[in-house]
Amino acid sequence: MAYGVFALVRSDAARRTRATKVFAALSVVGFAITVPGELVLILVADKTFDSAATDLASSVFGIGLLIADLGLIGYGVAALRIHHWPARWAALPLIFGAFQLLIVTPAIFVTGFTSFTTYVAIALADLLIAAIGVRLLTTE
Asked: Where exactly are the transmembrane stretches of this chain (predicted)?
């Protein structure tokens, strides 16, 4: 996902203004933080949800995802404003960021990382990022 978001912010989806550069940077940095966050989560996969190690690992991942989501939302708003991509495509970064922030993150907090609900939410988020990838592959 980190590489896909990097490709998105380098694309022509939104004009390069100061604001879009900031949102793009937030997106890339946020997803870059999730990479070690994912690796740390592997180390605590057998721990209980309330353990200190799990809390620390999920915090690293969660902070990265929060930063990335805020960046994607801002970038998506910018992409919608410039009307370079059709609206249904330009809205994808906004929808993806908002979906992760408002659906995936609460699902993780309420039901845990290994619940069916979380798996479904993550699968839907994966489909959104795949749709962004399709758009990038068909326009670049």
From this structure: 22-44, 56-77, 89-110, 116-137
